[in-house]
Structure formats: structure tokens, C-alpha cells
Amino acid sequence: MVRAGLTTERLVRAGAELADEVGFEQVTVSALARRFDVKVASLYSHLKNSQDLKTRIALLALAELADRAAEALAGRSGKDALGAFADVYRDYALAHPGRYTAARYPLDPGTAAASAGPRHAQLTRAILRGYDLPEPDQTHAVRLLGSVFHGYVSLETAGGFAHSAPDSQESWTRIVDALDSLLRNWPTR
Questions:
Q1: Where are the transmembrane segments (predicted)?
Q2: What is the DSSP string of 128-163?
């Protein structure tokens, strides 16, 4: 018998909340069953296994991030757009550490192509149009921004800047300023 009220969407959202609480690596179908006080077998009509659950949480996180980024970018360009975009990723990672980790979960090529992942690259390229970068420089810049944002956020969420001055917000602001300057003065061959 399927427990009333359990749906795939509800389970995935609860899994995402669990990821934020205990870490994405700790999310399993068993842990989710304990959360709902049901037997593991009752979840298998909604989820194939823990990998399926993690994939679905990753898809949710990618969609949430893309939606927030699109909203933040609306009507902005240049440095204003770059800062808003950067803040979306940082704020999301700080508010939802498990989901942020999930957004980095490896997806098979078909799932990745159908996910919100490609929207992230499109949104980044939309920002770069304000900097007039030609291809393949846009691709290099997309990779640079992703690396800087993810690297900084990973260090910050791990507590890497907790006990040093200046505070991490000041560094973040300076990094966005430096990226803006680099993008405006992109090196040419």
C-alpha cells in the first residue's frame, strides 16, 4: 500500500531539505524513509534507488538556481548583471548547502542536456554579451566565472574565511570588481 500523501515531488523536496540539513552525501532512500516514518519499500513506487533520488535533487537544485539567476538578471547588464548573478550562486550555496552540492552531482549526458544546466551557461553568456567577448573567449570566460564562483563558495561554506579579516563579503565584492575589470579588458591573442 502506498502511503497517502507521498508523491515523487514531495519526496524529492524532502530529500533536498534533508540534504541541506545533513549534507547531500548523507541522503539515501533509507534516510528519507526514516524522515517520513515509513518502510523503505514504500518509497520504491516513487523512486528507483538512492541514485535516482540524488539525481532528482540535483535537477531540482539546478532548476531553482537557474530560476533565481534568470530573475536576478532581468533588466541588468554589465557589472550589475555580473554581481547579481554571482550573488545568486553565493546566496543559494549559503542558504542551501546540500542543494548547492547536489547541483554539482554528475548527471548522465541525456539527463544533463534535458536539465536546467544548459540554462546556466546561457545565462552566463547573456552576461558576457555586455562585455562584447567573441567565441571562443566566451567559453573561456564561462569557465572562469564558474570556477571562481564555485571555488570561493566552496571555501566559504567549508569555513575557510571564518577567522580572518577582512570579512568574506568584502572579499566577494572585490572579486566581482576584479572579474568585471578582467572581462572589460579581456586579453586577446
A1: none
A2: HHTTTPPTTHHHHHHHHHHHHHHHHHHHHHTTTTTT
Enter the C-alpha cell of residue 83.
Answer: 554581481
Q: Would you say residue 3 lies in a domain?
A: no
- Contact between 130 and 78 (Cβ < 8 Å): yes
58-104 pLDDT, tens per residue?
999 999 999 999 999 999 999 999 999 999 999 999 999 999 999 99
Asked whether residue 93 is assigned to any structural domain, the reply reads yes
**What is the number of structural domains in the chain?**
1
What is the residue type of 31? Answer: A
Nearest residue to 100 via CA among 144, 68, 52: 68
* 122: in domain: yes
